Amino acid sequence: MKNIWAIVFVVLILVVLGLFLFSFQVRETEKALVTFFGKPTRVISDSPGWYLKWPRPINVVYKYDARSHLFETVLEETTTKGGKPINVTSYVVWKIGNPELFRTKVTDVKGAEANLESLLRNTQNTIIGRYYFSDFVNSDRDKIKIDEIEQAMAAAIKESAPGYGIDVELVGINKLGISESTSEDVFKRMSADRKRRTEQVLADGNAEAAKIAKDAESKKKELLAIVEAEAMAIRGSGDAEAAKHYKELEQEQDFAMFLRDIDALKKILAKDTTIVLTAEDDPVGLLKKAPDIKPKGSGK
């Protein structure tokens, strides 16, 4: 019985050694490169699973992490167009695209990051040197071109990175910094820009106010002219009507004066007023001395 268990144990050890020597596993997060006496013969990138191989040194399996990696540069000074210095920290998100080329060109992740650092620094200096300082720092958000700069950097790096077996997914600027002297210049420029915009707004407001006042004055004169013309027309009509009555009253002057006094009496008595008059005083005397009015055309 003991011999059977010993045989089983030996078989299990041989099976494990056989699996270790003649097979390998590729996980979902890995890519593998298989070499035959040092020459790449097989790449496994999109098919995780269990694979057979010959033991070393016939077949050697190199496994790589297929997930995305982040590499970030240190904060360093770069000169913008026009000579203004700016401190920039850039980053790149990358992953292994071609394991065979990756193994040949950079060997491992450390070697890849060394090449990416050089590539990212050169690209950063070249692209940033094409833009003015105001494209990075500006009180007007519409004039900031960070997105455009990042796209230009990504395009340049994506063009060179495949030569190392690397696929670049994203390139960006993580941090911006400026020196104290540059900060003072920026604040002064921003203050001057704010002042200029304020003066422009005030000037536009004053111009609009002057325009409104001018329009109002023009409409006022126009309305006054219309009203005055209507008043003159009404006055002329009244004068014509009055002239007509004056002509008639000239023929009966006593009657005209009598009507005027009667009208005055109406106005006096229209309010709650107490008046003490003699029978001979005007306008009470009018009741006693009404003119003798005869129809026109009758004999005297």
List the helices and strands and how they pair.
Elements (H helix, E strand, L loop, with lengths): L1 H21 E4 L3 E7 L2 E6 L4 E4 L6 E7 L3 E4 L3 E4 L5 E12 L2 H7 L3 H20 L17 H15 L5 E12 L2 H71 L2 H17 L31
Antiparallel strand pairs: 1-4, 2-3, 2-5, 6-8, 7-8, 8-9
Describe the structure in brief.
This protein has helices at residues 2-22, 99-105, 109-128, 146-160, 180-250, 253-269; strands spanning 23-26, 30-36, 39-44, 49-52, 59-65, 69-72, 76-79, 85-96, 166-177. The chain is an alpha+beta fold and 300 residues long.
Overview of this protein structure:
This protein is α+β, with helices and mostly antiparallel strands and 300 residues long. The protein has three domains: 2-65, no CATH class; 69-178, Band 7 domain (Tetrahydropterin Synthase, Chain A, 2-Layer Sandwich), CATH 3.30.479.30; 252-293, no CATH class. The protein is built from six helices and nine strands. Strands 6, 7, 8 and 9 form a four-stranded antiparallel beta sheet that branches.
In terms of quaternary structure, what is this?
single chain
Provide the structure class: alpha+beta
Beta percentage is 15-25%
Uncertain runs: none
CATH architecture of the largest domain: 2-Layer Sandwich
The CATH homologous superfamily of the largest domain is called Band 7 domain
User: What percent of residues adopt helix (DSSP H or I)?
Assistant: 40-55%
Largest sheet: 4 strands, antiparallel
Shape: rod-shaped
CATH topology call of the largest domain: Tetrahydropterin Synthase, Chain A
CATH top level of the largest domain is: Alpha Beta
pLDDT averaged residue by residue: 81
As a whole number of angstroms, the C-alpha radius of gyration is 54 Å
Helix tally? 6
* Run of helices and strands: HEEEEEEEEHHHEHH
Q: Provide the number of structural domains.
A: 3
Q: Please count the beta strands (DSSP E, at least 2 residues each).
A: 9
| Cα-to-Cα separation, first versus last residue | 177 Å
